[in-house]
Amino acid sequence: QVQLVESGGGLVQAGSSLRLSCAASGRTISTYSMGWFRLAPGKEREFVAFINWNGGNTHYADSVKGRFTISRDNAKNTMYLQMNSLKPEDTAVYYCAADKNPLGRGQYDYWGQGTQVTVSS
Q1: Residue 116's pLDDT is what?
Q2: Which of 39, 61, 62, 76 has the smallest number of Cβ neighbours within 10 A?
């Protein structure tokens, strides 16, 4: 019912910034909680950030805390991940996901196709 498409990835130098977008279609995500995940070569999928339905509750993986900011614009049916002070270890495919539960359950109903982020040193 919901399609999610990530964009904004690319190749940047360490210390640079990127802003990822997750555009939803098919249904409004204004009542969904959302999350960002990443998958790096040779590693398991890693949780990055969470945001509840109205943006009033967010939390982050320790590895990105203080550098990344998750946000959403429900009027645009879009979620964002602002990534600052990027490090080579941030290199991964980044995925957005949606949970029908507005408060979050730790499980997700919809996933995007991913966008590649590569950070060079």
Answers
A1: 98
A2: 62
Greatest Cα pair distance in the chain: 40
Least confident residue range of 15-19, 104-108, 116-120: 104-108
Mean pLDDT over each residue of the chain, to the nearest integer: 97
Summarize the chain as % helix, strand, coil (round to 5): 5, 50, 45
Residue 1 has a pLDDT of 86
State how far the Cα of 23 lies from the Cα of 98, in Å rounded to an integer: 11
- Kindly compute the dihedral angle of the four CA atoms of residues 73, 74, 79, 84, in this order, to the nearest 10 degrees: 20
